[in-house]
Amino acid sequence: MINENSPKLSDEFLLSDEQKQIYSSAISRAWNHFLKIDDMTLIVLKGHLLIEEQLKLLVDDKMIKPEKIQRISFSQYLSLANAMYELPEDMVWLWGAIRALNQLRNTMAHELTPGDIDKKINLFRSTIPQNEEHTPEYSIKDCIVETWIACMYFTIKNNCSVSPQHPSSR
After folding, report:
1. How many domains does the chain have?
2. How far apart are CA 21 and CA 27, in angstroms?
3. Contact 123/129 with Cβ under 8 angstroms?
4. Which string of DSSP letters, residue by residue, matches 36-81?
């Protein structure tokens, strides 16, 4: 379960000092902001935004002129990332988790009284790999944080550039 112990960048990545600073700032900003939220709708919406930032980094990094792409949906970013990157064996769950989170977010954002919300929550939770910390009490917040950390790890592992202008570096 999540707590105040902020994730840190591992030394296993060959990043410049500037890259480490940018990623560390992005991690701290997101972590400190996200920990303060208790409302489930806000958790899902903000978690979705954090993951969207990572998808944009992954996709934009492969483009020559990413600024030419406008009005692209979350689902389209996810499809592009899925087409551009092969996930390592221990992360094959990631695209499915992000897709399930997107469905949950869309239901919460676009339906005043969503009838199948528990079904969508359980679907999202079921996409997260089981481990010793993954208990029945594993909250939606825990699942989103685990998904976001996996995205951040994958972004760093693929040496995606983060410019100071990118939202995740603010």
Report:
1. 1
2. 10
3. no
4. T---HHHHHHHHHHHHHHHHHHHHHHT-S-GGG--S--HHHHHHHH
Whether residue 23 lies inside any domain: the answer is no
Domain boundaries, position 58: 40-65+73-169
CA distances from 73 to 95, 101, 128 (A): 15, 14, 23
Comparing C-alpha atoms, which of 67, 49, 2, 68 is closest to residue 170? 49
What is the C-alpha separation between 55 and 119, in angstroms, rounded?
25
- Closest-CA residue to 26 (of 9, 41, 13): 9
What sign has the CA pseudo-torsion 100, 78, 35, 42?
A: negative
24 part of a folded domain:
no
User: Tens digits of per-residue pLDDT, 4-56?
Assistant: 444 444 555 566 777 777 777 878 887 787 788 889 999 999 999 999 999 99
Structural tokens at position 41: 């709708």
This prediction has a pTM of 0.81
DSSP 8-class letter at 3: -
SS3 133: coil
**Alpha carbon separation from 156 to 56, 112, 153 (Å, rounded):** 13, 37, 5
Pair 55, 73: CB distance under 8 Å: no
Amino acid 18 reads E
